Predict the structure.
Amino acid sequence: MALILKEVTKRFGNYTAVDGLNLSIPDREMFGFLGANGAGKTTTFRMILGLLDPTAGKITLDGKAIDYSQSSMIGYLPEERGLYPKLKVVDQIVYLARLRGMKKQAAIKELGYWLERFRIPEYFDNKIEELSKGNQQKIQFIAAVIHRPKLLILDEPFSGLDPVNVELLKDAVIELKNSGTTIVFSSHRMEHVEEMCEYLCIMQKGKPVVHGSLKEIKRSFGKKNLVIHADFDVSYLQSFPGVVKAKQTPEGIYLQITGEEAAHGIFRDIAGKGFVRKFVLEEPSLNDIFIEKAGASYE
Amino acid sequence: MIFSLKRQVLPMNNFFIILFHTYISKLKTKSFIVTTILTAAIMVGLTNMPRIIDFFNEGEENKKVAVIDESGQLFAPLQEQVKGVNKEITLARFEGSVTEAAEQVEDGKFTAILQVELSEGNLPAGTYKAMSMADTALAADLQTGLQQLKSVMASSQLNLTEAQLSQLYEPVAFEKEALEKEAKTEEELNQARGLVYVLLFVIYFSVIMYANMIAMEVATEKSSRVMEILISSVSPIKQMFAKILGIGLLSLTQLAVFLLAGYFSIKQNLASMEGGFFEFFGFGEVPLGTIIYSVVFFILGYFLYATLAAFLGSLVSRIEDVQQMITPMTLLVVAGFMIAMFGLNQPEAPFVTVTSFIPFFTPMLMFLRVGMLNIPLWETALSFAILIGTIIFLAIFGARVYRGGVLMYGKSNSFKDIKRALQLTKKQ
């Protein structure tokens, strides 16, 4: 389902949490939502879910305003993880699934499928408090997707998971996307967004500073990274024209340059000076873009 | 994988899903089951109180008192008088010395010693000696007996005729009549007092207990962060009322268990217990009206305080802060109960009348007045109207606070948070 945010603003008293946000998230796409802490991500999610009313602007899902009548089509994994600690996994999931309009039997069947898929079928009858944190997170993920939502909002879905479980969850998310779910997710892990999202938005102080498709963003960013490994000292490149940033590495230097032309100049310059083991011109990473645009790093 | 699951979008359904989930999951908790059984057991115990008391009293029914009568004239008339006071006291003439008698008391042959003699005016005087002064009833009975004997002797010394004597002792004619036609008689009032007393306790405890339960429930959902998932699928307002009704249903279930246990236990005992304990408490003939009023006032009181508790609970983010947050509310209930306890003896005091219209006190005080007095219908109706109005106001206001409150995290134990929560729900 296509999700469109039009001039969405949210003010709390004098504080503006989200300021004139325009987003259009195409149907069946995976949309990455980035931003430093306090950039307005969670507030935006809460407005999309209808928990908060925007001060101004409009949010529509397939052209319709979002309200509780659509709750069976929406799935939400909040940033703060939480389930009823005293309730059994099955009771918990069935309760939450029923609130999303599922029948009890269907929910139990789906739960079986997901537990199997996440390799924890033995926890069907356990209380939540008896599960490890990672496994609790899987249960919560199941709670968000069990009713096969058409719009899925994932707030930091992979935080606190080990790499094996991250892969399990990532596969599940990609599969959901391929089966037609529109997914919006926020993450602190740039590589996850880079790997999974076609479209993204970087928020800063309630405003989108970068917005569009990943390729487009990288291209318009202009700057590129240059990795040089050489047998001779290349530290003088720090002050070479076209170099924005430089970082010494044990085997050479890592440069951020203004564009491909700058690389030409550097290549010509070092070519005669000695043996160069490695000379790689790289696309900028999302992390570079994020640091520059949002002025902060998570890594 | 199944991709086309049947979707049933019936928003009203969610209300009942939450209601029954709250009800059933609470019903199944061990603490609920244990409390219910324990309280029911205590109720059966209380209603069997007379039997229990009698059971323990059986051993020492007959109290033997050694009477040392040096004059030789007092024993027989005293025995006569004491018999009239308490049949269970047996007097025995003791011929030995006081020391000998004391030894026999120590051996347990006698309960106490009563030394009687004729004093200066040729009137009886007595000294009571026992192992301890704990049994005040026995000493009092003996004293009464001796007092009566003294009166008889004194009047005969004054040479009063039999007729004069009976004139002197005839109790004054004193009849009480209420001018109001339907006012309760003294006897009825005593009965009502007992019943109202018990029902006031029930209202007091249950309002505190269930309001607490609601605040805890809300705070638990908030602190475990399950709240965000819940409110993303069901509106907070619907959720709040479903919860209040769910716990309300639970409270009615529990009270029904208590009522049944109490009713059958009393009914069983009633046959064997004519007069005494139960009649004092007004259980002889329970006025149906009072019971119905108590149920109505309980339900209204519950809604009032439950709404308050729900929105107060939504303001805290840690369970530990719940008690602090709802303390002002608890104090309101306690204050109402205190006034009600005072009002039991003076239900007509202007103070009680005025406070019975304050909605937070109405459930207890207006019930007290309805149960004990014969108050005009308009007063009851007015208090109902104020109470229901307040409940509606609190529900609307509470729902708005709740909606914002459940999204608020961080340090939160001041009433400033109510303002913050309201701000969250506003558009501007």
The interface with chain A takes residues 1-3, 5-11, 13-14, 17-18, 21, 25, 220-221, 224-235, 407, 409, 423-425, 427-428 of chain B (CB under 8 Å).
